[in-house]
Amino acid sequence: MHLGTLSLPDNQTRAALREGDNWILLEAADVGALVANPDWRNGLDSARATGQRIAEDEAALLTPIQRPAKIVCCGLNYHDHIIEAKREIPTFPTLFAKFADTLTDPDADITITGSHKVDWEAELAVVVGSSVQRATPVEAANAILGYAASNDVSARDWQSRTLQWFQGKAWDNTTPLGPVIVTADEISPKDGLEIRADIDGEVVQRSNTRELVFDSADLISYVSQFTTLRPGDIVLTGTPGGVGLGMSPQRWLRDGEVLTTHIEGIGTLRNRMRLSASEST
Amino acid sequence: MHLGTLSLPDNQTRAALREGDNWILLEAADVGALVANPDWRNGLDSARATGQRIAEDEAALLTPIQRPAKIVCCGLNYHDHIIEAKREIPTFPTLFAKFADTLTDPDADITITGSHKVDWEAELAVVVGSSVQRATPVEAANAILGYAASNDVSARDWQSRTLQWFQGKAWDNTTPLGPVIVTADEISPKDGLEIRADIDGEVVQRSNTRELVFDSADLISYVSQFTTLRPGDIVLTGTPGGVGLGMSPQRWLRDGEVLTTHIEGIGTLRNRMRLSASEST
């Protein structure tokens, strides 16, 4: 099942379910509001029968979860990125947080003013479907709603100002999410999905989600030891090798470049960079 | 002006304004909902004239801001704590985030299961009163609603597992906030307020908010360069020297101990520790 949040002409938003080449509108403002109702699956049959349909090529997709209460991100979680960053394979996941404001739409421009070192990090996002607290990995796996693509676009100059990465990672409207959420019954990142980032069509990251050190269930289980995760909460699983920070010479995004993030079986994010203080190296 | 959020007998909560020995109930579920309305000050006169009053000693105070969208915390921000942690006076503030779920009430028990090294960090909390984006320190100062006491209770074993502190800092219901918000016209942390933490009556931290490296306005200005702060958002300004991590031998909170956090002109938090995996050293 593919779930999305659509922008409607009257400035409203609606959760929707993809069927063939159409989106069927559901009775919720976004996928977050949809899955907050534990009975949400019960309404799907009647929506399929009578819901308003919008052709896929006329639908504008937004961040599927508009206001997640929690976004927890994992760093250093792909074997190849860990090697690139010259670090050891970790015993524990390295975690930090973003805010709902950090998210942006699958095809939005990303505007950053005040960073000279904007970098890309293609990531698999996991969306929580039911509440978990001190969950085992098996319980955590059962609590996964589905998966989306994301890009943890980072202001490396701010990230490296202090020991804590947060200030390079929580810029408003810089982390695209989507384009849809593919439910966990349809794809298995653990079995392997290609993940890729391109800049103006040039491939810069290409790896596979089976390279994750801590998989989606491991991360949800771990985080749930200290904080409850609820429907609509998001875990970003980290990025593979190929970021600009790890290149020699280092490379940063330039104003006007289009960053494309693709995960097999999920879809593609396309975000043009609007950078007013960027450097080419 | 002292603002608080009260628990009422019917499981409801209400924002309230202190007047003498009474709390006057206001038309909002908490101080966060109150200040989300930019005209909130206009309603105070009629509340003073006709609002329901509750005697101070019959009022149960809750976290004044129940669901802040953003809690940004600063580490290494008191001269004495920086020396204790054997670090340099910083050029930039070290920042990390907490979630709304991390907060707890001014007199709540703090329950932590799964950490062996629970430590205390008395902190001044700053509450944002109006939206700020890329604000100067002067604009930031004007956007401050007021101040509360807080304690960034930390699971040091989790905090030190990886480079990022977040996982030791975001345990549900571990950061008390309150007991009230004192508005910025009444107190000036920059001019000096004593800040103190006691364990079962023994003073472990005692410093003054004039020792802050980055003051409240500096921090709000800095954070607002990358993320918009809005009414009800919270900035924790860091802790002075005297934490258990810095003692020799190191000292951790024990099950049953009462942690008291006091800031001059604001008030006192009293939190009993409920630790099921604590160590005495």
Automatic annotation (TrEMBL), chains A, B:
One of its GO terms (biological process) is carboxylic acid metabolic process. The keyword Cell division does not apply. Keywords: Hydrolase, Metal-binding. The keyword Metal-binding applies. It comes from the Bacteria. Residues 70-273 form the Fumarylacetoacetase-like C-terminal domain. One of its GO terms (molecular function) is metal ion binding. Belongs to the FAH family. This is Fumarylacetoacetate hydrolase family protein. It comes from Leucobacter viscericola.
